[in-house]
Amino acid sequence: MTDYLQSQRASDQLAAEHGIDDPFAAAIRATRMAMIVTDATQADNPIIFANDAFLRLTGYVRSEIIGRNCRFLQGPETDPASVAELRGAIADGEDIAMDILNYRKDGSTFWNALYLSPVRNKQGQIIYFFGSQLDVSDKKRTEDHLRETRSDLEAAVEARTRELTQALEQKTALLHEVDHRVKNNLQLISSLLLLQNRREKEPGVKASLRGILERVNAIATVHRRLFQSADVERFDVSAFVRDLVSDMTGSANREEIRVRLDLERVDVAASKAAPLALVISELFSNALRHAFPDGRPGEILVSITRLNGDFRIEIADDGVGLSETARSSGFGLTIVQLLCQQLKARSETTAADSGTRVVIHLPVNGVHH
Amino acid sequence: MSGRALDVLIVEDEVLLATELEYLAEEVGYHSVGLAMSSDEAVDLANSLHPDLALVDVHLQDGPTGVEVVRKIHDDCGCVALFMTANVKRLPDDFAGACGVIGKPYSEHGVKMALAYLAVCLEEGHAPGWPPVGLELAPAFAERWGLTDMPRTA
């Protein structure tokens, strides 16, 4: 077998150059890490040196492997992509480190952390390849196990997330459905009131119907704004007040009354939106209808600010003042009192320089600071 | 409003809402030509009456078919539609060809302002200013009626 003989000669030459007293050669022979040297100058790059650790790792005896290309370590389960990569590195004369599945003589497999690097002569030509092999099957097993565990966990998390997302979608759909019905029913109620008002001739009854319509409208304005923002549990009071005041002022058709808004953006819990809307609607309506009799001009201020952790809502007019007119039916103020009680809010009514000022202190989180 | 009254078709399955809406439209100068409660009725009436404006609810007697109605009457006879719905957020981005939407629940004053505003837009082909509170215009109509280059604070 000429190949074998040629490799044996190369092997002998290598051994002769690195005799028994060469400490580097001794280290390589004795180390627990498997190592080989191949002859790059021969066809098919055969092994010309293998240390004892390599023989222990692979189960071969030395004579079985000297003169052979080390592809005998590969088997049916070895990843062809890894083999191609390895071949490419050898062809290009480059270092390579990779984990590759190899086979022992008895057919059993092990994961080989392979490091292969070319050895050049003084002229820069590649004359040898040096290879070291480390059995990393345990590490690989642990990694695989971890990967499986992780992918099981990921699958579980994904499934749970899917369930929760579905549940949330259902809940959101339901919320929209209910919201839709509430809005339609509010529209129906206001249509009923408007229709009856059209038929009604008695001024007192018409005024009552208008009063109720106004309250229904205040609640409707809330519902038009509710669930519009990303946070369905909060309600932007300033945006609502802008809508409400513009609608009430417009429908009062009193161009000689100016409305001034001083609105800081404040949010309240959605559950407080409707009662608060009714309070503001009553107070503003009172000013609009009673402060400026007989076409008297003037101004109504609506202001919302934060004060010491409370919301301060002020509705002030420069009209005829409290004493000079019997304000509303009294029912409107009853509503304000009752709802302030419900909202745990304090209401103060004072006679302003001229006109009336009502200030509501609404606790932000249900308690006064 | 100048000239002849604009014809309006109301597409709404709640008859009390529709009746009151008819009054409101006539109070701001429209002429109500009919009421449809289902999608078929709406398409038939739009094709035979050629209204200037159709007020269309999304939920009709045959289900949430209002969007299809608007698209169909827009494609068939170029009828301008206005959505009146509680589900403003569910409308397609192009408004299915409608000129805009009024969110329910609307107020008497709000709907009258919106309809009076649209009457000017329809008759003059140009908006008199920014739309009133409660009326949202479709992007295509905001452009058609010259709102894209109108300053915000007119």
TrEMBL record, chain A:
InterPro entries, per database record: HATPase_C_sf (IPR036890), HATPase_dom (IPR003594), His_kinase_dom (IPR005467), PAC (IPR001610), PAS (IPR000014), PAS-assoc_C (IPR000700), PAS-like_dom_sf (IPR035965), Sig_transdc_His_kin-like_C (IPR004358)
Coiled-coil segments on the chain, per record: 139-170
NCBIfam families the UniProt entry points to: sensory_box
| Record organism | Caulobacter hibisci
Q: Which UniProt keywords apply?
A: Chromophore, Coiled coil, Flavoprotein, FMN
Residue span(s) of domain PAS: 20-93
Extract the SMART domains matched here: HATPase_c (SM00387), PAC (SM00086), PAS (SM00091)
Its recorded name reads histidine kinase
From TrEMBL, chain B:
Please provide the record's keywords in A-Z order: Phosphoprotein
Domain (Response regulatory): give its ranges: 7-119
Carrying 4-aspartylphosphate, the residues are 57
Pfam families reported in the protein's UniProt record: Response_reg (PF00072)
Which InterPro entries does the UniProt record give?
A: CheY-like_superfamily (IPR011006), Sig_transdc_resp-reg_receiver (IPR001789)
Fetch the NCBIfam families from UniProt: PRK13435.1-6
List the protein's name.
Answer: Response regulator
Please report the organism this UniProt entry assigns to the protein.
Answer: Caulobacter hibisci
